[in-house]
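Z., the sequence and structure:
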Amino acid sequence: MTPEKAHGLPGLFVAFEGGDGAGKSTQASLLCEALRAANIPLVRTREPGGTPVGEKLRSLVLEHGQGEIDARTEALLFAASRAAHVAQVILPALARGDVVVCDRYVDSSVAYQGAGRELGAQTVLDVNLWAVNGLRPDLTVLLDVEPAEGRSRRTAQDTPEDRMESEPDPFHERIRAQFLDLAGGSPDHYLVLPADGAEDQLGRMILDAVTGRLA
């Protein structure tokens, strides 16, 4: 049986989550290509970002050289970006009946600031649910990656790591554990896949899960 929608709007909200280097962007691209080929209207977006103000906040929280950002400020900047993103992009798209494919959402703040920065998962979740007025994804695809594997993938790309990526492995281990804990608490709304699986096989499983919910 397909789980009920997490909202009362005609569209479908799909979020991709996982540690840095898990392959979220790759799988989001594959999903969007398949949906477009089937003439399904969609919006692809990302967090932090998705709006003009969100992209400015993205540079503040992810780029090096922006000055010191303490953990609480960081958490609130992510929540502020998300509030604008939901109001200006995600809700209008869902109201039109589009599929929204989002690279990261609330779970990332719960994992990165709640667990990684040790602010407390429930505290960060409460702040973000207020920011988005309770909007949750219909399906969260969690690509599970070992921290060491994620770092290996990132460094192989020969691009500098951002502020979050460059944190030590224990930070990323806490993040991974929190993602898995979130998925375990609501299995009907999560698809947990090993990030080291074959790209095309992962893509088929994700597409099947999405089309099943569209049906």
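The chain is about 55% helix and 15% strand. Residues 71-96 form the longest helix (26 residues).

Let me know what you think.
H.
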